[in-house]
Amino acid sequence: MAQDIQLRLRSIRKSFDGQNGRIDVLKGVDFDVYERDFVSIIGPSGCGKSTVFNIVAGLLAPDDGDIIYRHERVSNLRGRVGYMMQRDLLFPWRTVLENIMLGPEMQRLPKAEARDNAMEYLNTFGLAGVENAYPKMLSGGMRQRVALIRTLLTDPDILLLDEPFSALDYQTRLYLEGVLVDAVETFNKTVILVTHDIDEAVALSKRVVVLGGKPSQVKSVHQIDLGSRSPVGARSDPHFSEYFHTLCGELDIQTKVKQ
Ligand SMILES: Nc1ncnc2c1ncn2[C@@H]1O[C@H](COP(=O)(O)OP(=O)(O)OP(=O)(O)O)[C@@H](O)[C@H]1O
Where does the ABC transporter domain lie (predicted)? Predict the structure, then answer.
């Protein structure tokens, strides 16, 4: 069955002023995102992954190129995306619930309904009882769950996740990957994830976009077909390591130890 394309990036270019003149970062980036897709973007450090996100979210304007959303040309997806970054960016002076309610407050959503939704999310994400705690009282994994709830509560069409778990220990990361996949499947969300972690990209994604070159372009797009959508189950799939090695090869990472 043909999949519906939700977002189309076409020939996106971006350069910045550097110390020694203009630096071209994106040279014409093209890729598609399907409805309810889970796409990871990987590539070398500094290749422009976050720049792509900032352009999609409307924090930066591209120098050239088209953003097409559900068949309509738009300048960005402001108001349609939820953006979550590596740092949880919770306000220390606000309680967990007050932090989560920030999005609905800004969108002027009905307060009682938003509060009920927030409490339900806290329950689902194993955070019942911490609504009145302050961020400094929580572990890193709990804070990222709060940040994820805050992102989901505004009901964005697309979640942009920029290395959301990279500061966490492996066990917490595995747990939160599962929470994320469950949440996006339950709420039918589309996810675009930037990660440095190839293992995470293979375990979570339906497709992986590899950026490369200087300035960057899309080097390849890989469809990931593993038997399980659970991040732990996916890692146990016999084909997992094939995808892992292919993507390492794309990034010129040597995976064989010389004899
Ligand atoms: N606002 C800006 N002004 C000037 N240069 C910028 C700006 N934003 C990004 N850059 C430069 O653009 C390049 C790409 O940055 P970007 O953060 O998008 O890369 P990245 O692939 O996300 O990097 P990393 O993997 O290290 O997080 C870098 O050289 C960066 O210094």
Answer: 7-238
- Counting ligand 1 atoms within 8 A of each CB, the residue from 23, 25, 209 with the most, and so the one to mutate, is 25
Q: 10-residue block means of pLDDT along the chain (259 residues)?
A: 87 93 94 96 94 94 96 93 83 94 85 91 89 93 89 90 87 88 89 94 96 94 92 92 94 69
Ligand 1 atom nearest to 53, measured from its CA? 18
Q: What is the ipTM of this complex?
A: 0.96
Residues 53, 211 contacting (CB under 8 angstroms): no
Helix%, strand%, coil% for the chain, nearest 5:
35, 25, 40
pTM of the complete model: 0.91
Choice from 12, 26, 49 to test ligand 1 binding pocket (greatest atom count within 8 A of CB): 49
Ligand 1 pocket residue status of 51, Cβ below 6 Å: yes
